[in-house]
Structure formats: C-alpha cells, structure tokens
Amino acid sequence: GINAEYMGILAGSYSMGGNAGKLLASIDKDGKNTQKEIDKLFAMYDKDHSGSLTGTEYDKFLEDGTKYMLADLKKQGHNYDHATIYAWIKQWIDRNGDGTITKAELHANLKAVLDAGE
User: Fold this and answer.
1) CA atoms of 59 and 61, how far apart (whole Å)
2) Checking phi first, is residue 77 left (phi over 0); if not, alpha (psi -120 to 50) or beta?
3) Helix 34-45 / helix 55-75 crossing angle, nearest 10 deg
4) CA–CA distances in Å: residue 93 to residues 34, 66, 107
5) Are 14 and 71 in contact (CB under 8 A)?
6) Among the four residues 2, 38, 96, 116, which has the most C-beta atoms within 10 Å?
7) How far apart are CA 25 and CA 30, in angstroms?
8) Is this prediction's pTM over 0.85?
9) Could you write out the three-class secondary structure of the chain?
10) Tens digits of per-residue pLDDT, 45-85?
C-alpha cells in the first residue's frame, strides 16, 4: 500500500535512477555547487543528449521529482497525494507546458520547486 511506499522512501530504500536523489537533496540544500549539480541531474535524464527532456526522459524526471518531494514533505508532516505533487512540479518546471524540459528551464525553476518544500 501507499504507507509502505512512504516508509520505504523515508527509510531511504527508494533509489531514484543512480544518484538523482542525492543530487536533488544536495541542490535542495543550496550548496556552492548547485549549478553544476543541476547540470549533472539534467545529464542523467537526457539519455539521448538532445539538450532537452522529452517523452520518457520528461516523464521519468517528473516521476522521480514527485517521489523526492513527497518524501521531503512527508518528513515535515505534510500529507499530499502523488497526483497533486506531480501536477505541481510539472507546472513549475515546464512553465510553458510544451512537454519539454530544457536545461535553462531546469536551472530557472528547480530551486523554486525544491525550496517550496521547505
């Protein structure tokens, strides 16, 4: 059930494609390497090296970002549902709603999304 999924996320057993979860946590903390970390995160999802996240790359990024934010918000005692957070991240990251996330969009909007979870 969903509670087991949350507990797994909170226990750290959920791994987002490689180091994506660690990168998101680091970016969320706003260290001195934030811009480089956003570049690394983007590169992890941009499998075809096209310079933008589309199709399954786009979907996977939004899904992983949703899971990260759900766990982050849950730790703070908030209880949002998956669909709400997914839609919210999609709206904030893909501002023009074209179904593509460019590196510029990620740089411009990712911190705002992560900071909203604080």
Assistant:
1) 6
2) left
3) 130
4) 16, 12, 9
5) yes
6) 38
7) 9
8) no
9) CHHHHHHHHHCCCCCCCCCHHHHHHHHHHCCCCHHHHHHHHHHHHCCCCCCEECHHHHHHHHHHHHHHHHHHHHHCCCCCCHHHHHHHHHHHHCCCCCCCEEHHHHHHHHHHHHHHCC
10) 999 999 999 999 999 999 999 998 888 888 888 888 999 99
d(CA 37, CA 54): 20
Assess contact for 52 and 102: CB atoms under 8 A: yes
Average pLDDT over the chain, rounded to an integer: 80
Amino acid code (one letter) for 52: S
Q: Which residue has the tokens 């970390």?
A: 37
